[in-house]
Amino acid sequence: MQIAVLLFDRFTALDAVGPYEVLAHLPGAHLVFVGERPGPVRTEVGSLALTADAALSEVDNPDVVVVPGGPGQRHHMGEGPIRDWLRAVDITSTWTASVCTGSLLLAAAGLLTGRRATTHWLAHDQLAPLGTVPVAQRVVTDGKYITASGVSAGIDMAFTLAGRIAGDAVAQAIQLAHEYDPQPPYQAGSPERAPREVLAAVRSRKDFILSRG
Amino acid sequence: MQIAVLLFDRFTALDAVGPYEVLAHLPGAHLVFVGERPGPVRTEVGSLALTADAALSEVDNPDVVVVPGGPGQRHHMGEGPIRDWLRAVDITSTWTASVCTGSLLLAAAGLLTGRRATTHWLAHDQLAPLGTVPVAQRVVTDGKYITASGVSAGIDMAFTLAGRIAGDAVAQAIQLAHEYDPQPPYQAGSPERAPREVLAAVRSRKDFILSRG
């Protein structure tokens, strides 16, 4: 089972590494990080690069596709090699998954038309214009498409996907091995739960957060 | 504020990327990934490499040090450049942090002697022989030392640290921007909560999980 994780300049690291950390431990899984060209690909912060071990053309038949989000996503919404690749691999994939604004890439490629999907809460209003039915939920499954909300939601998405692929016991064993028993020291992780002034502060930086200038 | 994240061969990616994703967004923070030599450093899974942008010798005065765990950790428990570096940078660091079995590296370097600390639940029995007071808690703070339990606990550790460094409002804003409102689809993330047969299965693979053979 080949699982391809897409990388592009100015992606968000945890969007990709959260799912990798879960899915790489599925029995028989072979993960591959893929980019427009092999080599280091920088996150939007700039101080971290992950290595793309394969070019898009080298990965033409993955079983599972994982698409992260991040500010660089907006440069691949139109025609181009990433859109072409997403359309091509989706034809034969068993699962096509996204995290955060990665779902906007899938939607822009026409893969989520009429389907239920989610994305980062700050980008939710971008789903409907792309023909997608927006759902304000942490993880949304519609057929073989599974989309996660912002950044850290990719971990919850991956455990859901792990259970669907390999069964509950395998997913639970991976969860225990990764000690995924979250205990956030603050309860500010959603617009509903965040203190009002924190919500206002983050909203006021919406453009910066989504595009990093 | 320079924040150095240590990389070594066969580290666990989420141990490093979880804290990076939080701490990189602190105002004024400059993250740097550091390794024995600059270049790609592979995780224990092998299908992912993160780039070390600096050699140990180039980062001699970080404000915050973050030490991930992973199977490769056991090769740095004795004399060597990583132990030397940990001891040297700890002299002037404001915070020295670890995730998962990263605390065993700190303990082996003599930095946690007599201090309260935690690690991955499967490695907890290794703390006391290294002179550390083991605490079965997700995040443990003792002076400037902050240690996290297994893998995903680094995210909770980093939010705790973010609050201590920059205040609650900043930490909460980062939490909201990362939509860190975990909703695991399974409740198997700790030995206490996991189904008995899942716990037994993971325990039986303890050596593999900690050392990957």
Automatic annotation (TrEMBL), chains A, B:
Source organism, top-level taxon: Bacteria
InterPro entries: Class_I_gatase-like (IPR029062), DJ-1/PfpI (IPR002818), INH-QAR (IPR052158)
DJ-1/PfpI domain ranges (all copies): 2-161
Pfam families (UniProt xref): DJ-1_PfpI
Stated name of the protein: DJ-1/PfpI family protein
